[in-house]
Please model this.
Amino acid sequence: MSSGVREAPLTLDQPTPKVLSFWDQSAFWANLGVSLLAFSGAYTVLAPDTDGAPRISLAAGMLAMIVGTVMGGVMLGLAAVPGARTGRPAMVLLRGLFGAKLSYLPTVLNIAQLIGWGTFELIVIGGAARELFGGGPQWLYVVAAGLLTTALTIWPLGSVRLLRRFVTAGVVLALVWFYVQFFRAGLPDPTVNPGPSGSGPFGAEWNLFWVATDAALAVSISWVPAAADYTRHSRSERAAFGAASGAYALTQIVAYVLGLFALARATGAGTYGPFLTVTAGAVFFFVFVLREADQSFANVYSTALSIQNLLPRVDRRILTIGLGAVITVLALCLNMQNYFGFLGLIGSVFVPLLGVLVADFFLRPKTEWDTTENAPSRWGMVAAWLIGLVVYQLINPGDAGVWTRFWVRVQELLHFTKQAWMSASLLSFLAALAAAWVIGRATDLRHRT
Model:
C-alpha cells in the first residue's frame, strides 16, 4: 500500500489506506450521534406502542434512551473492530461469516435499509430547513441536501477529516447553547407526559421499558452493518472500537435528552419550534441542519460499498452519484410515516446478525477470515442468524403490517407471552451468539475428526 494514498479506493481490488486516527473517527461518530432524527425520535421512545400515544414517563424514557444507546454503542464498537483488522468493508466481511454467495442476502437487506435511512434523512433535512427559514418549497431544500450528500461521497475520507476540523466544534457549541437555554427555562417534571398534549400525572409504565429501550437501540444498530466501511481505514483496532462505541453513544444520549427537553417545551409550532424560539436559536439550529448531511452521506457511501459486494469492480463514485439521485427522488415522493416500524424491523435483522459475527469472529480459534469471491457457504451461521431473528420477533413483532401480523399469529400458536423484563435486542443478540458459538464448535470438532 502506498503511504501517499489518502482517499478511499474506488473498487474492492484496490488497497485500503489506514489513515484515520482515533480523533478523526471520534469526530465522525460523534457527529452521527447528533441527529435531527434523534430530536424528533425522542417521542418514539416515549410512545413505544402501535397507536403512537405516549406510554412511559420522561424519566423512564430517558433511562431507556441511555440503556439502549449504551448497549447499541458497545455493539457498534464490536462491529467496528473486524473492519479495522481486515481492511474490508462491512458487507464484504460477511463473506467470511456466511460465504460469498450467502452474504448477498444481508447485503441486499442492508442496501434496502440504507436507502431508507438516506431517504429519511433528506426528508428530515428538508422539513427542518423549511421550519428554519420560515417556509419555502420543500423540494428545493431536499434537492440541495441531495446534491451536498452526493458531493461528500466523492471524497469520503476527506469528508471525515473535514468533520473533525470544522463541523464538530460548531455542533458542540450548538448543543451547549441549547442546553443552557432549556435549563434557564426550567426543567420538565420527569413524572409527566412531556408531549404538548400531556398534562396530568404520567406514571412510568415499566412493562414497556424494554420496548422503548429497543427503539433507542435500533438507531445505533442501524449503523452496525455499515461500521466497517469506515473503520477499515482506522490506524488501529483500539481506535476503531473506542471511537465507535464511546463517541457515538455519548453524543446520541446528549441529543436524545435534548430532544426530550425540546418536546417538553413544544407548543405545536412545528417539530423544531422549541429550538427556534430560544435566543439565537435559528443560528445554532442552522448548524444542526447543515451537519445532518453527514448522516445522508454515510448512508449513501455505505450503500455504494454494499453494492460493491455484489459488483466489486464498479467505481464507487458512479454508484454514489446514482444513489444520491435515487434517494433525492424518493425523499420528494415519500413521508416519515411508519418510522417506528422501520426501526423495529431493522433491529430484528441486524442485532442477531451482529451476535453471529461476534461469536464467529471473536470467540472462535484464530482462523483466516475468507473474504474472497469464492468463500464457501456456511449454512450453520445462517441458521444461527435466523434463530436470533425468531427470538427478536417473538418478543417484539413491531409495527410492520403483514410481517407483524404473521409473528403475532406465531406467538398465539406457541402460546408465547412476552414478559416485562424481556429485551428483544439483548435476548436475540445472545441467542444468535450462543447458537453461532455452538454451531461453530460443532463444525470445528467435526473437521478435526
